[in-house]
Amino acid sequence: MSLDRLADDPLLFYTLATLAAVVVTTGLIAVLRIPGAWVSFRTWFVILPIALGAMWLGQGAWTVLVAVVSVLAFKEYAKVTGLYRQTLFVLLVYGAIATQNAFAFLGRYDVFMAIPTWAVLAMALVPIVLRRTEGMLQWYALAIVGTIFFGYFLAHLSYLYGSSKGLGYLLFVLLMTQLNDALQYFYGKAFGRHHWTPISPNKTVEGSVLAAATIVLLTFLQAPIAFPWVPPWGVLVAGLIVTIGGQVGDLTMANVKRNAGVKDFGTLLPGHGGLTDRLNSLMVTAPAFAHIMGYLFGGFPT
Amino acid sequence: MSGAHFEYEPFSDLDLPLAARLGQFPRQPDLLYDSTRAIARRLTASFVRLQFRIEVEGSVPDVPRLALMPNHQSHLDTLAILAVLPERFRRRLTVLAARDYFFERSAGALAANLLGQCVAFDRSTEIAELRRWARLLPTIEAGWFLVYPSGSRRRLQPHEGLARVLARSGWTVLPVALAGTAEAWPVGRALWHPFRTLRVTFGEPIVDATGRDLPAELLAFWTAHGQLDASRQPDGPPACAAHPGRDPREP
Would residue B193 be called left, alpha or beta, if left means φ above 0 and alpha means ψ between -120 and 50 degrees? Predict the structure, then answer.
């Protein structure tokens, strides 16, 4: 298999790279016997085949996966915040998620960008229809956050798949965001001394900086395959979007958890928590990456 | 200036695995499972009515708090009762099923919860479980329960347990006698024998069970109207976790 072939096919490249990373990490965990690492790592044996399998099946399968995962993740968020008791708001957010992903699949950027507007307007009708005021501002606000983060933001993952040059962007942002999370955790455990935010007390300066450095380095290594048309300063921007955006997403959802007084969004992914605990970084990196890189270097509508 | 504070009320089942979430009572609202259950119970009732000829005697009172107490000899018992109830009554019904039999695994819990409207009753800690229900029931304004006072398909003798707790908490007790279900789906068989005739007899509601021997009355009603399997022992020990010798895997 030639390097040219890999350069033409980012999905093949990232599938092979992921397999290699899984083999190496499995070996490292077995040799180093890191306590607790296996519990969270083995969950990837379920996540990765589902995610990569859907990508190999095509844009339709990928879009359905993103929509289903978004709905399930929103359900976790709604149960944590109590919004789930407000059926009408929940159904409207579900509708927004489905519509957002449908128009991402169709490549209708104009409608894709307009859906959050219509969703928020539709939600404004709920208190009027229900003739209720008590608590309505809270439910409205939580539903808007749900629509934006779980519907609009995550649907960028669906849109990227069908965009010209978007597949490389998608695979890069998807895998590097997850790696960024894992690196922050492991660097923090190994070298972390200085905690920098009360929102997520496990985050350390050392973990964040070392993860950022590693991600930027890895971005330069894979840029020739993921987005070969991007100049070096653009590659630096790409790496920074992932590592900074990942932290912003993580902290945003951590804030929700702290306010609600829960540790995790759920138990669906052993060792990780809920789906939202795994997707929180992507909620920011996916739209930020798509719009900034699309604006600067093409590959996503602007 | 007064400020409006957001008050978060996370669901209490966030940390529970699926089987435990499905078995909990009171149920937490869940759009997926609630809507699936609404569809599944209609389909199941139609399917049971297609598979069996069901004769019904007596009637069910339209009261807010009702506890149906049938004899138990087959998995078909719950399905037969659900099949003969009108939908407006069926949707009120919560069936108490053994946690150790139905709610250990997700697949069993899904089937019991979605098809049979079951929630879990923990027989392994029966006294503690009864206390929990005794605390819980007075807080519930309305609800229908289907409980099997015998506790097992292999026992006939009802025991006081939950039946007494329900009666004391203000629930109207409705004796129900089932006949034909043991032959249509015997204990130990994986599948049922279709096209048999089943009979469901609803007795007179017992509004106030104070001072009455509820187990004896139930057994008398079942004996008179149900088709009880003679191979079982009507006078045997009550099927209760507090009594050693019962196979804990027997629902």
Answer: beta
ipTM: 0.81
The pLDDT tens digits for A28-69 are 888 888 777 888 899 999 999 999 999 999 999 999 999 999
Whether omega for the bond prior to residue B26 falls within 30 degrees of 0, making it cis, is yes
Q: Do B29 and A264 touch (CB under 8 A)?
A: no
CA-based angle B55:B61:B64, to the nearest 5? 135
- Written as one string, the DSSP assignment of B132-144 is HHHHHGGG-SSEE
SS3 B54: strand
Kindly tell me if the per-residue pLDDT of B251 is higher than 60: no
Q: Which residues of B touch A82 (CB under 8 A)?
A: 7-11
Say which residue the tokens 């300066």 belong to: A205
Residue appearing with tokens 């309505």: A136
Contact yes or no for B14 and A91 at CB 8 A: no
Residues 6+ apart with CB under 8 A from A168: A10, A225, A226, A227, A299
Amino acid at A201: P
Q: Give the residue carrying structure tokens 């395959």.
A: A225
The DSSP bridge partners found for residue B118 are B95
A90, closest residue in chain B (CA to CA)? B31
Burial B180-218 (b: 16+ CB within 10 A, else e): bbbbbbbeeeeebeeebebbbbbbebbeebeeeebbebb
Residue B157 C-alpha from the chain's centroid: 16
Q: Which residue has tokens 């997707």?
A: A279
